[in-house]
Design goal:
With 407 residues, the chain is mainly alpha-helical. It has one domain: MFS general substrate transporter like domains (Growth Hormone, Chain: A, Up-down Bundle). It is built from 18 helices and no strands. α2 crosses α3, α12 packs parallel to α17 and α13 runs parallel beside α15. The longest helix is centred in the middle third of the chain and has 30 residues.
């Protein structure tokens, strides 16, 4: 039998990556909806809950590069399946939580599980399954589908939280995490697609090559802002709207709209990434987010302004994922893409920690989010300018090609 007859269907790989990433990221982006009921039920403060979210993001960031290296060495499938199982266990621990320690333990487990099943490894599977000519568009399509989870989960979870104990909502997440298993199996079949023969490199060599690339270093530093801004909104928007006297369902509607609009936004980002420089599009994204945050938080929220804010932010939400993933593939190829994306994610998650826990600490100290969103806007504008000015190729000569792709 010819070897090509045994190769997996790329369409099934893309479907598996899309569903897995949609569930993993959708549940993670809706965790902020648990802040009011959990803090009230367990007698915790906002900073207690957001500390657990911060620990989750630390675990995600610290685990991403090592797990990416493991996936590059032994294959994606074992890592993806292990992550899905761990996600189920993490949700079971969350159900049994009666205080901060169990919430923190659940957060650590969720962080490691997302490192196995979230954007970095899903984007690696996508990039390896398609040709370089189609890569940017396909990364955008898979990234777009990842928002379907948020679109569906957010309103469904809020309805459940309005009628039942918050543990019933976590039970829904247990079921959704279990549904990730077949999707992870499908996405992991990309291991059977032969990759270009390249020089074998250790993790230390890969990291050294990546950190020696100026464009990658700039990409990592500005990626910090992505984590800070998105986690701040995910975690604190429900509490902010509740403080302003808005209907609790409004926050779920806003998250659902962000997810729904992001389907188009991520696809658009991937398509634009095939036409224009990705580093320039990333800079514009950070500037655009900062502009939207400024316009929204300058005035008291209303249902109309919140939904408009959600729609505008949805266009800029996860479009960075196909752009960052595609840019890493351009710079270094796909052989060690999981490792290098994981390395960039360490900085991203440092921003997530500040966005979640820092936002909670500022709220506890001052009783409002005014200082928090102002800080987010300032660093967002700074990151956008730096990415555009210093994140591209040298003006005098062009890059010869992916550093690791040629061996």
């Amino acid at each position: 039998m010819p070897q090509t007859a045994r190769l997996p269907n790329p369409v099934l790989i893309l479907i598996g990556a899309s569903v897995m990433m949609s569930l993993a990221m959708g549940m993670r982006q809706c965790l902020g909806l648990f802040l009011p009921p959990i803090t009230h039920s367990l007698g915790l403060t906002a900073s207690d809950f957001t500390f657990a979210i911060a620990i989750q993001n630390i675990a995600w960031g610290l685990a991403q590069a090592p797990l990416g290296a493991v996936a590059d060495r032994v294959g994606l499938k074992p890592v993806l399946l292990s992550g899905a199982v761990l996600y189920v266990c993490a949700m079971l621990v969350m159900i049994m939580a009666h205080g901060v320690p169990m919430l923190v333990l659940s957060g650590v487990m969720i962080g490691i599980a997302i490192a196995c099943t979230g954007s970095s490894l899903a984007m690696t599977a996508t990039a390896r399954a398609v040709s370089p000519e189609r890569r940017s568009v396909m990364l955008g399509m898979v990234g777009a589908f990842s928002s379907v989870g948020t679109l569906i989960i957010a309103p469904l979870l809020e309805v459940m939280l309005a009628h039942w104990d918050w543990r019933v909502g976590v039970g829904l997440f247990v079921i959704l995490a279990a549904a990730m298993l077949p999707a992870a199996f499908m996405a992991g079949s990309v291991d059977r697609i032969p990759q270009p023969i390249q020089k074998r490199a250790s993790m230390r060599e890969v990291v050294g090559i990546a950190l020696g690339n100026r464009r990658f270093v700039v990409l990592c530093c500005t990626y910090f802002v992505c984590g800070l801004q998105l986690i701040f909104i995910n975690t604190h928007l429900p509490n902010y709207l509740a403080l302003c006297g808005q209907d609790p369902m409004l926050s779920a509607e806003a998250l659902a709209i962000i997810g729904g609009v992001n389907i188009f936004g991520s696809w658009t980002a991937g398509w634009l990434g095939s036409k224009f420089p990705k580093y320039f599009l990333l800079g514009l994204t950070y500037l655009g987010r900062s502009t939207v945050l400024t316009c929204y938080f300058m005035f008291p929220p209303t249902p109309t302004s919140t939904l408009i804010f959600a729609g505008a932010m949805g266009m800029l939400w996860l479009g960075v994922i196909p752009l960052v993933s595609g840019y890493v593939a351009e710079l270094f190829g796909t052989r060690y893409m999981a490792t290098i994306l994981g390395l960039s994610f360490v900085i991203h998650q440092a921003g997530s920690v500040i966005g979640a826990w820092g936002g909670g600490m500022i709220f506890d100290a001052f009783g409002s989010y005014d200082l928090a969103w102002r800080i987010g806007v300032v660093i967002g504008v700074t990151a956008g300018i730096v990415q555009i000015m210093f994140g591209g190729p040298p003006r005098t000569k062009r890059n010869a090609g992916p550093a690791l792709a040629t061996g």
